[in-house]
Design a protein that fits this description.
Blueprint lengths: L1 H42 L3 E4 L5 E3 L15 H7 L4 E6 L5 E8 L6 H12 L7 E8 L8 E10 H13 L3 E8 L6 E5 L19 H66 L3 H11 L5 E8 L2 E8 L5 H5 L5 E6 L4 E3 L4 E10 L2 H4 L25
Parallel strand pairs: 1-3, 3-7
Antiparallel strand pairs: 1-2, 4-6, 5-6, 7-8, 9-10, 10-13, 11-13, 12-13
């Protein structure tokens, strides 16, 4: 299970690394083509520089048309040409070059490493310079190192010269610096330097507009994919939550219905368990009532018993019921009246039946005991 989880996790990671490498290769190829095109356009652009005497000249050090021509002055160029977009090549005395060696694996981070070297080995701050760098072969290339040729030029020097050229009506398209060993121009800036530039511009690492648009497109696609997956996961989670909530409500309703049925069943069982059997009630009446009393009515409603009849004397019946193990709370429900025909007193009495656990010890008779008087037959009120 762990191996399967690891494989499922590493597969998207490998795809993401492969995709990033492919984008990096496409971006580098596109950047090389753009830089090559830019270099071709720059080679056709006049290059203005300062001679050792401090005079502005048009640099003709590269052979044109199979031969060399003397370098014209800037005044001659302005008088004979309408081209006002030029490149400015800094004299080598205005900058200096540092060579640092870094591991080949860190070559993609060479710009940051070069700027760290500026802060460590020079008195300049990154905000006070223009710089560029290029990767060259190291003497320790067999050991996995590459050399970084880092060009550093004070910003103030560049800005002052560009400002002076602009006073002649020229527009400086870029500023370049030529390293003696390579004989190639390294671009310090691709924008006119009449405003502040960001630190660390490199000739081979600038993001072109096409590359920037490509990166923005990739980021937008990645964001759209992420948002789509998030929305799908959230919808699935919401649906699962709704289903779980409905199932939980159904289970709760079933549980409440079962609890209600169980409570009702227990109530019925408790009520039935609390009732005293009718045979026990009649047996208890036979034991409690004296020989001189007989009943005309018996009514049992749950745990309440009502009796009516004749007795002599009837007033003593309450005291007769009180010590009973079956009856409790005896009381007359109407006044005692004298019946002269029967020489008895008519009474109506109500009592409550005790719970079964209280009267459970009473035996259920199969035959009437010898000492117990047999109760007279129950008659109606119109007994003659």
């Amino acid at each position: 299970m762990m191996a399967r989880d690891t494989q499922s996790t590493s597969t998207p990671l490998r795809f993401w690394r492969w995709w990033c490498n492919e984008l990096s290769d496409v971006a580098q190829s596109l950047n090389r083509h753009v830089l090559t095109l830019s270099a071709r356009m720059r080679s056709r652009r006049p290059v203005v520089t300062l001679d050792p005497a401090g005079e502005w000249i048009i640099d003709r050090t590269q052979p044109l048309g199979g031969g060399s021509m003397p370098a014209p002055t800037l005044a001659d160029y302005l008088a004979t040409s309408r081209q006002r977009i030029v490149s400015f090549r800094l004299p080598q005395r205005e900058g200096f070059v540092r060579h640092i060696e870094i591991p080949r694996a860190a070559r993609h981070d060479s710009e940051r490493l070069a700027m760290l070297d500026v802060e460590r080995a020079t008195p300049f701050k990154p905000s006070d310079i223009y710089s560029t760098h290029t990767l060259t072969t190291s003497t320790r290339s067999a050991l996995g190192f590459v050399s970084v040729c880092h060009v550093i030029v004070p910003r103030q020097v560049v800005d002052e010269n560009v400002t002076e050229l602009e006073t002649f009506g020229l527009r400086v398209a870029d500023v370049v610096y030529r390293v003696d060993a390579s004989k190639t121009d390294l671009v310090l800036s691709r924008q006119p330097l009449t405003r502040a530039q960001s630190v660390g511009n490199t000739g081979n690492g600038l993001l072109t507009p096409a590359l920037t648009a490509l990166l923005i497109l990739v980021l937008a696609i990645a964001a759209a994919i992420t948002i789509t997956r998030y929305d799908a996961a959230r919808a699935a989670l919401s649906q699962a939550t709704t289903e779980a909530r409905v199932a939980s409500q159904m289970r709760r309703a079933e549980f409440e219905a079962a609890s209600t049925a169980i409570a009702q069943t227990r109530a019925v069982e408790d009520f039935a368990a609390a009732q005293v059997s009718r045979s026990q009630v009649l047996n208890a009446l036979a034991r409690v009532l004296p020989d001189s009393a007989w009943l005309t009515e018996i009514s049992i409603d749950r745990d309440v018993i009502d009796i009516a009849g004749f007795a002599k004397p009837a007033a003593e019946l309450v005291s007769v019921f009180e010590p009973s193990e079956v009856f409790t709370d005896p009381a007359f429900t109407s006044a005692i009246t004298k019946d002269a025909d029967r020489d008895r007193e008519r009474f109506s009495l109500r009592a409550r039946l005790k719970r079964r656990d209280t009267a459970a010890s009473l035996p259920t008779p199969t035959t009437a005991p010898e000492s117990a008087p047999v109760p007279p037959p129950i008659a109606s009120e119109s007994v003659p």
